[in-house]
Amino acid sequence: MKPILLLLTLFFSIQSYTYSQPAKTKTMSDTTKKNPLYSNTDTSKVSISDDEWKKYLPEDVFYIARQKGTERPGTSKWEHYKEIGTYYCTACGNALFKSDTKFDSGCGWPSFYEPISKGSIIYTPDHGHGMTRTEVQCGRCKAHLGHVFEDGPPPTGLRYCINGVILDFKKAKEAEENYKQQ
Ligand SMILES: [Zn+2]
């Protein structure tokens, strides 16, 4: 009797496992996608497959962050944005730039002359499109952000040319509260 009981138990536990899975036909619109990796305070590195990213990121963010896309110039709401606060990575919430290092470069994308910290960004040589450029990626999740050029204003002389789609902004007060909670 015992082996049969065991089999029955197994059978029913497999059944209940199967039924507890969410229906695969269920589709979520981009606006309701929940991204469990997003955090303004967690600095641990994020390394997941593109298939997983696809579950968490809206299409336009996925295209920039994971496929190294470029948004059309002049289309970002952040390009001429003047509010005081912090810009974060839309994909993972990592702090990237402070608003006081933002400047109007006229290049068509939000531009900064300095990242918020050394570790907030990763630099990679990019030889694509017949040019030699330096790609900048998020230091936490490696999302493609844009490129850095050496024609920026003082004090750094650098111009971080960033796709607005991958930037998330929080006003100073809100950012301060997040900082206090750490
Ligand atoms: Zn990131």
Description:
This protein is α+β, with helices and mostly antiparallel strands and 182 residues long. It has a domain at 80-182: Metal Binding Protein, Guanine Nucleotide Exchange Factor, Chain A, CATH 2.170.150. 23% of the residues lie in helices and 22% in strands. The protein contains 4 helices and 9 strands. It has a 6-stranded antiparallel beta sheet with strand order 3-4-8-7-6-5, with no helix packed on it. The protein is globular, with a radius of gyration of 21 Å. It starts with a helix and ends with a helix. The model is unreliable at 14-30 (pLDDT under 50).
Brief characterization of the structure:
The chain is α+β, with helices and mostly antiparallel strands and 182 residues long. It has helices at residues 2-20, 50-56, 59-65, 172-180, and strands at 85-89, 95-98, 102-103, 111-112, 121-126, 133-138, 144-149, 159-162, 167-171.
Give me the strand/helix succession.
HHHEEEEEEEEEH
Shape: globular
> Any idea what the radius of gyration is?
21 Å
CATH topology of one domain: Metal Binding Protein, Guanine Nucleotide Exchange Factor, Chain A
By helix and strand content, what is the structural category? alpha+beta
Low-confidence stretches: 14-30
- Report the helical percentage: 10-25%
> What small-molecule ligands were found?
zinc ion
Beta strand %:
15-25%
Q: Cα distance, first to last residue?
A: 57 Å
